[in-house]
Amino acid sequence: MIPEQENLLSSVKNAIRILRSFKMDQPQKGVRELAAELGLGKSSVQRILVTLASEGLVHKNIETNKYELGLSVVELSSIVLGNIDLHTESLPILKKLAFNCGETAHLAILEDSQIVYLGKVESEGSSQVKSHLGFHNYAHCTSSGKLLLAHSDNYFVELILQNGLDSLTPHTITNPDIFRKELKTILNQGYSVSVGEYNLGVTSVSAPVRDYSGKVIAAINLVGPSPRFSKQRIHYFASELIRSGDLISERLGYWKR
Questions:
Q1: What strands lie across the sheet with 216-225, from one edge to the other?
Q2: Rg (alpha carbons) of the chain, rounded to whole number
Q3: Closest Cα to residue 78, out of 91, 65, 94?
């Protein structure tokens, strides 16, 4: 590869690194901050940011003198989400689920050893949950993650167990044997529950979403403060989630036999 091509590829890669460095809790970043974080020269970062700004991918906040993601990123993400059948088909059902149950609803998929939220709907009475579209979360201590792992291949589950299960709270399951039993229970009952395993005082319940072949490809959940998730309500939420999951699955071409 000629030097010019190498420099071009390096600049493109660094531009992508800059875009990906913006987070929900870090929406704005300065040139010096980005340079230190990514190990790049300030002049290089400045040059890339100016180019990205010219395309609307970033925007400079005049008040803070820092950069933030631009509207072009929103436009691109809308195109992607608009073409994902799973997202578009599930959204109206998620909205109805959140409204009927009064809790926050998510749609999640499994990516590597984490879950990623493709959808989130909050009802008027739901408690605010720190999550957003594209948010990555643990799989082993969330109801959606455990459900998706329960429907994953055994070798993949064993690989995760070999790497160890991080303890987030005193209720997080870290023992491999107990975790395997938990996954079997989820398969048998058809839904998953996480009570304070990721956050103390927070409970979530999840059910599966299947593609046309019947394979579980996503999970939908309801999450909120544990005091609002009594055993009776958990059973009610589980039935609503299973029904909603079946409706989304039907939209994706799967029909129960």
A1: 136-138, 114-121, 104-111, 216-225, 202-210, 192-195
A2: 21
A3: 91
